[in-house]
Every structure is written in C-alpha cells, then in structure tokens.
Amino acid sequence: xKLPFIVRPLFVMVLFAVAVSTHAQQCPGYxxxxxxxxxxxxxxxxKEQLVSGQTIVKAGAYFYEQFAVDRVRNARxxxxxxxxxxxxxxxxVLLLEESSFENWKNGHSAPALYSSGHITSGKxxxxxxxxxxxxxxxNNVFSQSEKQVFSDISLxxxxxxxxxxx
Length: 166
Fold this sequence. Notes:
With 166 residues, the chain is α+β, with helices and mostly antiparallel strands. It has helices at 7-26, 98-105, and strands spanning 46-57, 62-69, 72-84, 92-97, 114-115, 121-127, 132-139, 147-159.
C-alpha cells in the first residue's frame, strides 16, 4: 500500500511517538505523574466525626473528647450544639490545646481556641494552626443540673502533600 506524500511524514511521527512512549514506560524509575502539578489531581477533604448525637453531662461535671491533628493541612473544627436541662438550658463549649486543657481542668487560667460562654445553642468554626492534641469540652461545672447536649461537631482536613514541592 502506497501512502500519499503528505501522510507519510505524519505516519512516521506517530510511530516514533509510540516507540518513545513505550520505551519510557519500560525504563526503571518511570513515573508518569512525576511532572504533573499538584493542582492537576484535586484532593478530597477528609471529615472525622468528633462528637455526635446526645451527650449527658452530669451536674457540676464536664465531658471531653480528645483528638490529634498530625500531618494534615487546613484542619478545621466545625459544627453545632444545643443544650437542654436545668433552669437555663445552657452549656459552655470549649476547644482547647493540650496544655490549656491541663490548666483548665486544674482550675487555672487557660486560653481557649473557642469558648461559647454559657449558652443554649451555638456553632463552632475554628481553623487549627498547628499539629497537636486538642480537646472539645462540654463544661457543666457551673450548674447544679444535668444537661443533655445534642451536637454534630467534626474535624475536616486535607492530607499533607507528599513529593518534592512540600
């Protein structure tokens, strides 16, 4: 079969490209994604439930949930809560780093990343700035009545990037 003059160079170029591609794929260390930019493969955020549903907090007590943030980016605690019980239907919700939690539970002054004050319902949305251990606290130490707290609080983050540009 004789190909027209203009088609022959195109045919030769296609054969050459196939041969080079096949050879590259057989070379040790070949990684077709090595030269792709990180934005070419979008990363889906991971969501972990921290506290969900109903939590009973005894009078004069507190409830906490501990969680760790390690090797992630854009870690954010978000959610909502609603308290009932007693005369005021209130609870205090705190988000504390580990050292602050130790100080707080021992009655010392402690900075909080989030403090709701004594309220019936609220929302939390806090970007965590570093790796570490954190605590979500439902504080009812101030009350002589048991509280029911209905909550949906989660941690959302992106996995840490891997590769040469991290």
